[in-house]
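[recover] target loaded
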């Protein structure tokens, strides 16, 4: 996962050590040696993550973090404080200032990269939602004030712990400010999570009746709970389980013995983030319903895709990150309409759209380009990954007949797909043209295949 990371520390050797560790993992590292410079670089360079020392002269890390979070330009950049301070009060102060997590010096490599990867995954997802919201605002289909309500509405928490004593401790911490549900059985917890519209799952890693890591994995796998934040309660000595949890998609953790103040602050952060994410998703769906979806298939329409693609390419202009594009066409679709009628053709288009949705990733944008032609925009994606997704989609379409006319007719359908990747400073029209050329090559070569067009002629 390539990303730009800002390292801030007044001690030059500390900066160099972190810079070397991150560079080995192919992160783009920029550095600052004091708070004021860090604030300027954060606004100018738009890093994906900030590793921020606490103890600095002139302006300490707490103040820097507060200023970053108050600035709309930098408020959504994850901040990890790197400090020799180990007191819980210091961690709480940092979290209150807006920090996403703490790393204690000397920094453990395993903990460093687990936390970096976890926060970068979250930021990528949130950036995509904010970008889609900005696109919708530019189109005038929603206003900046639109949303489902206050971000301070009472949150709903699902706490999973099969130890009755510690479960009641959690209830005592949460019941005044949150609507809390306690469950000690994994299967029951999953049923509740899938239907309960919770803002946070709090999972004890000390559960003995089931594997809590398995529970975390299943929450991330299920469609209904994939976006549910997870906060785990972990023994201080159980680093291996903590790291595995972060790799599985756990958002945050509190070490045992639990400090109630730290638990309360981390919980509040996750609940507010979930409610903000829900607001973004609400606006996104509302804007699609109003103006930018195709009425038949429910996918984005050409107008929205073009604006979104232009925004992505413009954003990537100064800091090149590839945008890949898939253009696909249903093979012999005219024959379907001519033989069976347009109602059957519409059924095919709907099912084809559904299969696209199952095959592409959450950050990708799929649209109906026109007629039986569809486009998928894939941000921050190279040609190899895009080709793999295209091949998976081709197999998904060809592998099972399309059931149409209310199940009375089955049709074998295939598609041809053209794939290309943007070049630095490329415009959307040339990118679309190259993908289209690859599509027509796939048709000339016999259809039901994927063809790539790697670079401009």
């Amino acid at each position: 996962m390539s990303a730009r990371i800002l390292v801030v520390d007044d001690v030059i050797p500390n900066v160099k050590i972190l810079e070397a560790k991150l560079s080995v993992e192919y992160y783009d590292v920029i550095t600052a040696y004091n708070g004021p410079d860090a604030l300027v670089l954060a606004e100018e360079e738009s890093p994906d993550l900030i590793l921020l020392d606490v103890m600095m002269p002139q302006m300490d890390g707490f103040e820097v973090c507060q200023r970053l979070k108050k600035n709309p330009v930098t408020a959504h950049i994850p901040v990890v404080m790197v400090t020799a301070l180990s007191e819980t009060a210091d961690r709480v102060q940092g979290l209150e200032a807006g920090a996403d997590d703490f790393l204690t010096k000397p920094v453990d490599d395993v903990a460093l990269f687990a936390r970096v990867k976890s926060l970068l995954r979250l930021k990528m997802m949130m950036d995509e939602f904010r970008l889609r919201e900005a696109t919708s605002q530019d189109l005038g289909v929603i206003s900046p004030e639109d949303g489902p309500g206050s971000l301070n509405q009472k949150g709903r928490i699902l706490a999973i712990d099969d130890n009755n004593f510690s479960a009641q401790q959690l209830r005592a911490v949460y019941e005044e400010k949150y609507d809390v549900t306690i469950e000690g059985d994994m299967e029951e917890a999953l049923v509740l999570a899938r239907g309960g519209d919770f803002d946070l799952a709090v999972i004890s890693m000390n559960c003995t009746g089931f594997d809590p890591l398995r529970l975390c994995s299943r929450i991330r796998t299920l469609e209904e709970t994939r976006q549910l934040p997870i906060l785990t309660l972990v023994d201080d000595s159980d680093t291996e389980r903590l790291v595995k949890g972060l790799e599985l998609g756990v958002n945050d953790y509190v070490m045992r013995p639990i400090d109630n103040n730290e638990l309360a602050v981390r919980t509040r952060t996750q609940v507010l983030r979930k409610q903000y994410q829900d607001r973004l998703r609400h606006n996104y769906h509302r804007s699609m319903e109003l103006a930018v979806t195709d009425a038949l298939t429910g996918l984005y329409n050409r107008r929205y895709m073009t604006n979104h693609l232009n925004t992505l390419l413009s954003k990537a202009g100064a800091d090149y990150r590839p945008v890949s594009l898939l253009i696909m066409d249903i093979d012999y679709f005219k024959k379907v309409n001519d033989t069976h009628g347009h109602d059957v053709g519409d059924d095919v288009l709907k099912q084809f759209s559904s299969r696209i949705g199952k095959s592409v990733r959450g950050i990708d944008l799929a649209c109906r380009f026109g007629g039986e032609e569809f486009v998928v925009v894939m941000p921050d994606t190279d040609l190899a990954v895009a080709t793999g997704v295209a091949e998976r989609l081709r197999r998904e379409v060809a592998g099972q007949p399309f059931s149409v006319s209310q199940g009375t007719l089955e049709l074998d359908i295939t598609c041809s797909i053209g794939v290309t990747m943007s070049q630095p400073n490329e415009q959307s029209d040339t990118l679309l043209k190259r993908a289209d050329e690859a599509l027509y090559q796939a048709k000339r070569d016999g259809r039901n295949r994927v063809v790539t067009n790697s670079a401009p002629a």
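[recover] notes: The first helix runs from residue 12 to 24.
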